[in-house]
Amino acid sequence: MSEIIIPLHGLTREGQEFDFALDDSFLSGFGRDVLEGLDCKAHFRAVSKGGWIEIACSVTGNAKVQCDRCLEDLFLPVEVNELLTIRFDAEPDEVVSEDDNDITLREGTAEMDMGQTLYDLVCVSLPMCKVHPEGECNPEALARLSKEEDMAAEIVNTPFSGLKDLIDSKKNNKE
Ligand SMILES: [Zn+2]
Q: How far is the CA of 130 from the centre of ligand 1 (A)?
């Protein structure tokens, strides 16, 4: 349960605005698989459409992720603008269906926790390939990583045969 709660009862046709800060404490509820840090503002405008609700959602700020190339911190701009529709169904399940931006809730649901929806929208908005611009990766981290790769390759192709030949040839020289 996050702190991003939007009341669904009492919304007007003129709409109501809601603002939330999305920071690292928001992330603590979702693990840090993709997002390691977050400094964003979320803005909602919720409008009653008579029987259903339309929520315009925008998120702007910065996200901290891990660079896929050098594994160091990478800060990416976040820009989300989505239109969500909330419909109601008499089915007893709290969330009857959730199909992208069309959300169906149980009839009479008084409020909606937008935390998971926001988290997903921010993750999806980031580029698939998360890397620093060319030439801006941490050179020390890159050097360390390539050294580790070389060592891993050496372990796989250890030239024992070459070493044995060398020892044999020394023995032969002595005899
Ligand atoms: Zn990098």
A: 8
